[in-house]
Specification:
Layout: H1 12-41, H2 44-63, H3 68-99
Length: about 100
């Protein structure tokens, strides 16, 4: 029984629907894969903007005469809040993907 395969008659309409669904799913996952890759790599403009922002923060903290420990606490707090925002955005995008109409 394992090696024996039974042919099932499938209408042309069903084949077309299956191909359409297959193309949709492949396109959806391809798009999601590309978006994830772009998030991981980041855009050069975004990387430059982040670098400039961190440098400005360092300058401002130095002007405020903050200790190294205080500067580290501020950096950690910013990174922590950024992680929360990114997680919320990620989960919101996952929810919207699930809720999309077909």
């Amino acid at each position: 029984m394992l090696g024996h395969r039974q042919e099932i008659a499938v209408s042309q309409s069903t084949k077309e629907k299956a191909e359409s669904i297959k193309a949709y799913i492949e396109g959806k996952y391809s798009k999601m894969s590309q978006e994830e890759k772009e998030k991981k790599e980041g855009s050069p403009f975004l990387a430059l903007t982040c670098h400039i922002a961190w440098e400005k923060l360092k300058t401002e903290m130095a002007k405020a005469n903050l200790s190294v420990a205080e500067q580290e606490l501020i950096k950690k707090e910013i990174l922590h809040r950024e992680a929360i925002i990114n997680r919320e955005g990620y989960f919101a995008s996952m929810t919207s993907s699930i809720d999309e109409p077909r």
